[in-house]
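TASK: fixed-backbone design
INPUT:
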């Protein structure tokens, strides 16, 4: 690899927070885990409720269950489902 290509990769990685300008890896403490997102059906199964209940409680003005919108689809982080359970499901 030429020096220009190495420098460009380092700059690109730095821009997304993977490495700093010196090439050292940085911690991504502000990013969520890279665990796969859960579907409505998976969350409904975990909580033993209907899919309609999950949709209702995640699409309110003040949602009780945090979600990630992927286009028109609803997806959920496992951490958010755990937080919901820990908070007492209120």
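OUTPUT:
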């Amino acid at each position: 690899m030429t020096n220009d290509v190495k420098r460009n990769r380092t700059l690109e990685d730095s821009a997304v927070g993977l490495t700093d300008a010196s090439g050292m890896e940085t911690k991504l403490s502000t990013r969520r885990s890279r665990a796969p997102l859960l579907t409505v059906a998976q969350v409904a199964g975990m909580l033993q409720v209907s899919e309609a209940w999950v949709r209702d409680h995640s699409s309110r003005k003040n949602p009780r269950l945090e979600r990630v919108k992927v286009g028109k689809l609803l997806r959920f982080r496992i951490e958010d489902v755990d937080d919901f359970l820990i908070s007492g499901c209120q």
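COMMENT: The first strand starts at residue 68 and ends at 70.
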